[in-house]
């Protein structure tokens, strides 16, 4: 299929409903955020196991804080892109029943998506690592300790050395087990256990669609693969979704 034919086919699948979206860093980069694993990504110049870890938080807090201040906090000018907005609109129309995301930036929620499950946690809210009470982003960025117990403030991301949130994993398992179409947006699909979910969806009879600039290990089992920009392709697809006849 060519580009237009793929957009038309995906539009037919979306219009049929029961769609689950799985998003990775490639979606966020279209909003201007840095990715993680490319040659110019965050991890190319920093050791995540040292800086984004429980050990760094507990034993080297100044370095932990500087890493998150410089690398991961989302500036106000970073906004949801066309991909986020179209997914949110499809959810509003009843086509998309849930979003599973590896991203921590909350751009899906800012775009208007409601049913979002964050496998790696999120930058917000800030909380105390010691007592768990909620703190403010401003205090965290300023290096101010918890006002209740004096512990270190931290974002709610999953750090190296921590387990993924069970509630999100359970929701992702349910969504991928029971959908008609599973759309991957901007994920290399090399991180486990997150890459389990597209395979599970396919094994349970769903159509698997992968939209990612680079090839993935799952391209050979996908029904549609697109190695182009996400926002542009979803915009093209949405044009056909909005038509009464495709």
Shape: elongated
Cα radius of gyration in angstroms: 19 Å
How does the helix and strand content classify structurally? alpha/beta
N-to-C terminal Cα separation, in Å? 16 Å
The total count of helices amounts to 11
Mean of pLDDT: 92
Q: Which CATH C-level class of the largest domain is it?
A: Alpha Beta
The domain tally reads 2
Beta-strand percentage range:
15-25%
CATH topology of the largest domain: Rossmann fold
SSE arrangement, N to C: HEHHHHHEHEEHEHEHEEH
Write out the CATH superfamily name of the largest domain: TPP-binding domain
Low-confidence stretches: none
Helix content: 25-40%
* Spatial sequence of strands, sheet with the most strands: 3-2-1-6-7-8
Task: Name its key features.
single chain; 16% strand; Rossmann fold; two-stranded antiparallel ribbon; SIR2/SIRT2 'Small Domain'; 246 residues
Secondary structure topology:
Blueprint (H helix, E strand, L loop, with lengths): L2 H14 L2 E5 L1 H5 L18 H4 L2 H6 L1 H12 L9 H11 L3 E6 L5 H5 L4 E3 L2 E8 L8 H6 L10 E5 L8 H12 L3 E5 L10 H8 L3 E5 L12 E3 L3 H12 L5
Structure report:
Helices cover 39% and strands 16% of the residues. It contains eleven helices and eight strands. The strands form two sheets. The protein has a six-stranded parallel β-sheet, with helices on both faces. Strands 4-5 form a two-stranded antiparallel ribbon. Strand 2, helix 7 and strand 3 form a beta-alpha-beta unit. Helix 1 (3-16) packs across helix 11 (230-241). 38% of the residues are buried. The model has no long low-confidence stretch (mean pLDDT 92).
